[in-house]
Fold these 3 entries.
Entry 1:
Amino acid sequence: MAGGALPSDAFVLFGATGDLAYRKIFPALQALARRGSLDMPVVGVSRAGWTVDQLRSRARDGIERAASLDEAVFARLAAKLRYVDGDYRDAATYDRLRGALDGARRPLYYLAIPPSLFATVVGSLAQAGCAEGARVIVEKPFGRDGASARALNRALHEVFPEPSVFRIDHYLGKEAVQNLLYFRFANAVLEPVWSRDYVQSVQITMAEEFGVQGRGAFYEEVGALRDVVQNHLLQVLALLAMDPPAGRDAEAMRSEKLRLFRAMRPLDPREIVRGQYRGYRDENGVAPDSRVETYVSLRLHIDTWRWAGVPFYIRAGKHLPVTATEVRVDLKRPPLAIFEDMPEAEPNYFRFRLSPEVVIAAGAQVKLPGEEMRGGGVELVARHALGEGDSPYERLLGDALHGDASMFTRDDSVEAAWRVIDPVLESLAPPLVYDPGTWGPAAAAALIEGGERWHDPQVERTRPC
């Protein structure tokens, strides 16, 4: 429990009949019920015209699809499940909700609904007397740009104080992402070299072999820059580059991330390449003259004493050769080339594979057998695990129920991240076309400075330690 916060005593899911609830939230609720962390009413709210029995059937089906159904645990969850049907704009809906809460004083509201309805729902909760002492979870996207993010924050703060607002990004709940944070600050080996004195450059790649998979209409609204760079990958960058927090509490961690976001230089349109895979415009829901990017690569700078002069490269795209998310930190070469082959040798590096495997590795040069003093690269695997542990939604919902905001995004950090991205959201040239199965437009290679290159993630062949 964070800072002595009292746990929530009811869970209310707006959008209970939707896809997110079906695929992610109901399986997470069963997992929480299995470990005894859900001893409270669970109220689904929707305007689908359903009954509670239909909602229970939907929950069962979603759990069976995502995980193994535990009949005994599901029976306990189903017994706590209630349903309120009604329009989100109708005051009577919230009167029925108040009755379903049955006197709960600290409910947690999950808004699994379009952001355009956030202000309507939170305002109606306040008018119905359901907001006092409550917490609220909102899903990304947290706006489409800096201005809309600020407007969304104002709407939330009219009802809920910032400590009661939990902006959920499931990516931060992933085991591999949390392990990245732990590895950085639980080991003294990194700190002496984790700065501009030894680091040459940092690359973050999020590659997907598949395309938009029938979600063309959705992708037309976001694109790669908004969909994964502004939130997921900037958050990974913050965990890589932030200084150690000044305490163990959530606010110390989030304050360090904010300091890092504020030190990021706003993107220069000359340091970004946008691409669109060939055939994207033939997808259902995609405009025939679409200018939406399915690939983006960029060079980013952090103006702190630790990182000044170190380029950070980020790229993300669909229909690339592999599906993998990986961080590569290249170290500077030794100051003198004592051996003849040193100028051509690959630099030392750290590699963090975040998905689909979990790998932490270090690259070094060792002497090859023989009389000549010649070397070759080897990779030392520090950790290789295939298990994911708790699902991201299980972990994050559990944290929110107990008031632990460590892995949630604060309002000022959201706005600071948009400040970095805003300069390149509009007035950009049309995306460059690239063929599916390639690493994006050839122009992306020019972003890498100093004669270096992109390091392409490969299919992981390392065996578990």
Note: The two ends are 34 Å apart (CA to CA).
Entry 2:
Amino acid sequence: MGQYYRPVLNDGNKTTIYNRDVDGEYTMAKLTEHSWWKNKLMKAISEKLYQKPSRLIWCGDYAEDDEVRMTNLTVKDIWECDGEEIKSTDFNIDNLFLCNHDKKEYVNLAIYKQQSIDKDGWVLHPLSLLTAIGNGRGGGDYWADCPNADKIGIWAWNLISLETEPSIDYIEFEVVFKES
């Protein structure tokens, strides 16, 4: 069976559970179905993180409650609520830096995109993959035979933002995600 995912963001004041509907239209639910560079959901969540550091998970419905740390929520809580709808945006991440403020790391998205593009011109967005919890338990997940599968979820609940420049004391985190 396929595992479905939804983003959960904590901006320091409140935790928001998002559904995957963008402008009222359903967005594919499986991790590798909606984690594409120009997907409306990915663009909207990216914009919410633009110069606004927040904690984030991409919660799979097969995740375990201990993976949903940092809140008083359970996986069941996340999946039984309606979630907040998302409005589409034209936000462009091509020349930004995905920054992890807890680990003092960044992904240069221009370089990432160049290295991660597949033969058909598609690019998996690193944000959902680096923050995914529950991966590897259902269809549509990013599987162990794919490049850097061991990096899935390593930024879950870390303080993350998109910035025009990383802090000078941050180190580049080099990663490539491609479906095999």
Note: The two ends are 20 Å apart (CA to CA).
Entry 3:
Amino acid sequence: MRRLDDYRDIVGDKVLSEIYRKASGCYGKRIVHVNSTYYGGGVAEILDCLVPLMNNVGLDADWRMLRGTPDLFTITKKFHNALQGDSINLSAIKKQLYVAANEDFSTYCHIEHDGVIVHDPQPLPLVQFYRKRQPWIWRCHIDLTDPNKHLWQYVKGFILKYDMVIFSSDKYTKKDLPVQQRVIHPAIDPLSLKNRELSEKDILKYVKKAGIPNDKPTITQVSRMDPWKDPEGLLEIYKRVRQEVDCRLVYCYDMALDDPQGVEVYSRVYRKARKFVQTGDVVFVVGKHQILVNALQRFSTLLVQNSIREGFCLAVTEGLWKGKPMVATNVGGIPLQIKDGREGFLVEPGDKERFARRIIDILKNPSLAKQMGKKAKERARKNFLITRLLSDYLDLLSEIVK
């Protein structure tokens, strides 16, 4: 288990000292986080590091996962999409299954903590099945810029029972939500297998194992196979790029337990990319192993994120930390991380021609890529590491948990 002292060489003594000072006001406070999966997404990766660090600095932190059936996760995936603006048939049976799964979970998940932090829509209704003896916080990691109005009115009924809502960006705060709201940016763990430093030998070893040759520039997108990540649009962008630069596109993806849509999206993208797969110009890599993702990000010439909607996008944060230039869409939390023309380029979603042109600009200008990569790593170090997130949570808990 990593301890706060392990980050000293990365963030410095002043940061650690401030965290220890803040933690002194939270000693012994019992905090529980609740989400829906232990791997396959940014929330699980954050909690995997954040909870042990909370314990290390003096809190009594716990992590529970909602047990759900495939039916539940099919429904909550539709909820996730609709909260990001998609349409939905909000039937009575969907509501019933959603609420029933949370009620069932509450019968054996005993919550007697001093504070409860519930992550994302899946376990949102839990709050109504407990006698509240402590503050409940809903931590929303998704893009709520323009949610489906029908679904928003429905889930808001649960949110009203919470004492506070945390969003990833100011853009997601809601004027029609009479609950205290706060913005806390997510963060990555620089010492995790996915983000720690790797030798050149190890990088090449893992990339070779994944079947990726080292004969041409490599463009990589690390993401779920999700319509909001627009992997099909990325393929069209790649076709434009390769007209000017001989390069390879890598889709590094994973299938989370609570995301049943991934197989369908993967199959659709693979069919469209088949001829490029056969020539080795497009490669699909299952990123189940964090060290493989790490190696691939470090190996790539540049990283891309072609999202249509995005809560924050820790894949962008990871890329910055690896010192890689990024080309990404100007949505959600991405512009909080990338300043256009500094750490990379931002492009409006759907503008495939401009996206391709920005990739070409970087591929044809190695000095620009190096300059952007250096600034990217420093921006991640200063703003988006787990120590900053821990500090933000300590501020919050010292304020709300008595």
Note: The domain at 200-383 is CATH 3.40.50.2000 (Rossmann fold).
